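User: I'm writing a short methods note and want a consistent example. For P-type Cu(+) transporter, I'll paste the sequence; you return only the structure tokens, no commentary, since I'll be parsing the reply automatically.
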Amino acid sequence: MNNDNKYSSHNHHQVHHAGHDHSGHSGHSGHSGHSGHDHHHHGSFKELFLKSLPLGIIIMLLSPIHGFKLPFQFTFPYYDIVVAILSTILIIYGGRPFYQGSVDEFKQKKPGMMALVSLGISVSYLYSIYAVIITYVTGEHVMDFFFEFASLLLIMLLGHWIEMKAIGEAGDAQAELAKLVPKDAHVVLEDDSIETRPVADLKVGDLIRVQAGENVPADGIIERGESRLNEALLTGESKAVKKGPGDEVIGGSTNGEGVLYIKVNETGDQSFISQVQTLISQAQSQPSRAENIAQKVAGWLFYIAVIVALIAFVVWMVIEDVPAAVIFTITTLVIACPHALGLAIPLVTARSTSLGASRGLLVKDRQALEIAQDADVMILDKTGTLTTGEFKVLDVKLLNDKYTKEEIIALLAGIEGGSSHPIAQSIISFAEQQNIRPASFDSIDVISGAGVEGKAGGHRYQLISQKAYGRNLDMDIPKGATLSILVENDDAIGAVALGDELKPTSKELIKALKKNNIQPIMATGDNEKAAQGAAVDLGIEYRSNQSPQDKYELVKTLKDEGKKVIMVGDGVNDAPSLALADVGIAIGAGTQVALDSADVILTQSDPGDIESFIELAHKTTRKMKQNLFWGAGYNFIAIPLAAGILAPIGITLSPALGAILMSVSTVIVAINAMLLSLDPKK
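Assistant:
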């Protein structure tokens, strides 16, 4: 079955599903990792950081750090009032996103990172303003924390900028897809003149002209013209596909040498590319189990930090004085910011989603990656999944010395010349590939239930099934192949073996599954002979004559045995089992059912991509664990240190150092996520 047609026929319905039912999710991708801090609504952190930087530098140059005056610092009369005014401007401008974020968090009753940052900057700012007032009221100098306040705010803004940049660079698969569709289309008007119109303004029924070398602007049907189209985006076939009037074309495919006139049949949300983008945004906006753990840990950290900070404040007030207590309190709040933690999972999944997309994997449900690495069994459909799903000539045998092999192929192609049957078409295209001209037949007739017969050059030929021929031929034929015999005046002169060929990557996939201790089982609706042929070739267990119900029962039985099951199918008759399996993988994306039932879609219909999926599952889960360790682990060491637990032996952390340490962990997590990669395709 040709993949492109399969896609297009379901396009309209499936997009309706993808484009509307889930539209609510797509906007929440920011939420998942950031406890409600929405990137767009808080403005650009790059701009905030760059505009806050000069203010922050002036404050740090004028303020002593933690009571020490550094060589680069200078003072003048009333400098502290200038610093207080600049700090007020800085907290209002640079602190805004943190306060907005913490309001969101408290509204959701999930205080986390933003609440902690807001607490840290508020405490240091308010205490410093109080210190300036007391200094002027009593004449006694009270130490302020303007240096710590400014450095913390700048580092937090910088951290967010790095984070946003990293999330952006984690790969925007949607933007990549959008690039495939041109901005403008050449619309043919009634008087045959051409009007250039933005693609967004195209309507169903418009006639558009696509010149050689241009990308097709919308899904449609060719009215006039012939060309070869590169549909690698859609089918994974690097070879250009020949198309002419009546054939469907997909927006984003590249036109080869001819000029095409195409009638638009899908636009905007209904188009193939738009629907793939919707899928990607759904995949990226679903929180996974690991992400939920990260959210919980961030919440715990907020409460732990506040409690430890309060204990530190009380203890240090008793042991020393208020300024010392404030220093330890602020440091505790600063260092506990679960910034790296909020970043740990979203960065890995964003990177993982885009890596998958580059390999033709659309991961609709991110949990599929976490589940797949523990899988025990993979059930694979045969036709169209492990095999090409198309009849091909596997072998031509010569059974009579009077003829050459070329002559037999010419006769086979000639006698099948008038038939549109898939078997006939595969024989004709086999002759074309060998550059053999079909023999010219004077007449061709169908023999009901047996084959065809015809006359050529005064001879009578028949191409009939082995059963109709009735005699046994002693010859080797490929496993699972169907044999047709070419007969001349009742003598067998040649035979053609036809079959459904294994896809080139199927054997590699089976090897990879066995290496990962995943047991492959082939479940097919095909007969015993065809099923056995493919299964023996692949060296795997199989079940033949399977109805959709049988496949469903097989998945159910294995699950009842406590096994984790991955089901791979083409999404139509396999829908029930795709939905029931722990992870459903649909080959040949595009059927409505594939979209609804599967967790993962292989856009290129290549079983080798399942190998990439298993590898991606293992590597993604490993990176998530590493990042959770970095994001949370360091906090549990740093918080007690910040609270001054080791102060009696002279080890303390200043708020500025706390902020630097926190940012370093964020950068480590970001770099670690970016290092997620897949082995090159063999």
